[in-house]
Design goal:
By secondary structure, this protein is mostly beta strands. The protein has strands at residues 23-28, 34-36, 42-43, 49-56, 59-64, 69-70, 76-79, 89-94, 106-109, 113-115, 120-127, 130-135, 143-145, 149-154, 162-167, 170-171, 187-188, 194-195. It is 0% helix and 39% strand. The radius of gyration is 21 Å and the shape is globular.
């Protein structure tokens, strides 16, 4: 633009437009789940549910946000009703000034961020058809969290490699169970560890 004055350092100036952000789009993959973290409160989008996460042993328990408001700085999982998979697509979460509170074991970041804090990081993933939080082992002592995503952090070296979802007293990600009666005296838990006896509810 010839009408602009050229700065003494040789760089041309630029015009900037500021646009108000009124909603945050979240893509849900074919797996049916996504994580979300924002520095502002959001209204839960239509056709999906938002869940805080509580770690209980080897389970990631999904707790539905029933107020319709995701509090600012709160990591959540986006899924369908009762913790089931949501339909693949992009959902828009409107920014709101409504004040809400909720507790979640998920952390998150608005910009994409690298973390080097000592500990174990678990990211949402689908492995062999099962969606859960799986230990990240690929970034050579640093974990990359993508923009507006949430992750699970465990201080120290976590023995648990993954956390499967549980909604209330039920579980998600199981479509059908085929019975196969085989006599065996060896018992394993879901992480593949051999146990001497079944001492707690779960799948063995």
């Amino acid at each position: 633009d010839q009408g602009r004055n050229q700065p003494t350092n040789g760089d041309w100036g630029y015009n900037w437009w500021l646009e108000e952000v009124t909603e945050l789009p979240v893509a849900v993959s074919a797996a049916g789940y996504a994580t979300l973290y924002a520095p502002v409160a959001l209204e839960v989008a239509d056709d999906v549910k938002a869940y805080t996460v509580t770690i209980n042993g080897e389970w990631a328990t999904l707790n539905e946000i029933t107020t319709g408001i995701i509090p600012a700085n709160t990591g959540v999982v986006i899924a369908g009703a009762n913790g089931e998979a949501a339909k693949e697509g992009t959902y828009n979460f409107a920014v709101t000034t409504t004040v809400a509170t909720a507790s979640s074991d998920l952390r998150g970041s608005a910009p994409a961020t690298y973390y080097t804090e000592a500990g174990t990081y678990h990211a949402l993933a689908q492995v062999d058809g099962v969606v859960g939080f799986y230990k990240d082992e690929f970034n050579e002592s640093r974990f990359q969290n993508n923009s507006h995503k949430a992750y699970l952090y465990v201080a120290g070296s976590a023995e648990t490699a993954s956390y499967s979802f549980r909604f209330g007293e039920g579980t998600t990600g199981i479509d059908e169970i085929t019975e196969n009666r085989v006599q065996s005296t060896v018992i394993y838990d879901l992480t593949g560890r051999c146990v001497e006896a079944i001492t707690a509810p779960g799948i063995y």
